[in-house]
Write a structure and sequence with these properties.
alpha+beta; five-stranded antiparallel β-sheet; two-stranded antiparallel sheet; rod-shaped; transmembrane; transmembrane helix; membrane
Length: about 200
């Protein structure tokens, strides 16, 4: 009877050990599976020119400065790139105004009222912009920015180079096809826009 009782205790102890081991292994397997699934969900594969490129998802806070700078650059390129074509001007300005609030719209309305865009068309003038740098202060919200750029105003007989310094603030909005970065420029203002040089076209 003692042998049977000891054997039963041994079997019971061994069974409990096996069950405990199975539970630990199962929990570990579930944990690793969830970890792997979570890691795979943060990966995106992009097909470009027949090649699969791996991209990783990241939190917005990790890329605020990068996205904010690109948003400001994109706005300036659309707002200040002009050609002597009414459709091109309207297309670029429309794209730019999706990225900013009524402070940019007021500047556009003032320029339009002063026949600036009509002068661009009638004078066959093209205007391009080169962004030198964009500084973003992400320590306080809304994020303040300054954009340093140069403009080239190309006329039939001359090319005028001008400096451009603007400032404003960025607030978060929903992302959309028209505003992929999810920022909106507020209190947009031109601080400096003076002539640098002029050269005669040959």
């Amino acid at each position: 009877m003692k042998n049977i009782d000891n054997a039963f205790r041994y079997v019971r102890g061994f069974t409990m050990l096996v069950i405990s081991g199975c539970i630990i292994i199962s929990c570990y397997a579930v944990y690793k599976s969830l970890q792997t699934v979570n890691l795979m969900q943060n990966k995106v594969y992009i097909l470009a020119n027949g090649k699969a490129l791996e991209a990783y998802a990241s939190e917005r806070k990790d890329n605020i400065a990068v996205e904010a700078r690109d948003h400001v650059k994109t706005f300036h390129k659309f707002f200040f790139t002009l050609d002597p074509d009414d459709k091109v001007i309207k297309t670029n300005i429309t794209k730019a105004l999706y990225l900013a609030d009524d402070s940019a719209k007021r500047i556009y309305d003032d320029l339009k009222e002063n026949n600036f865009y009509s002068g661009i068309i009638s004078g066959n003038i093209s205007q391009t912009i080169q962004i030198d740098s964009v500084s973003i202060d992400i320590r306080e919200y809304p994020y303040r920015f300054r954009c340093y750029a140069r403009q080239s105003i190309i006329r039939t007989t001359s090319i005028l180079k001008r400096s451009l310094l603007t400032e404003g603030a960025l607030r978060n909005v929903s992302r959309s096809d028209n505003n992929p970065h999810g920022f909106l420029i507020e209190r947009f203002n031109t601080i400096d826009n003076r002539d640098l040089s002029a050269e005669t076209r040959k």
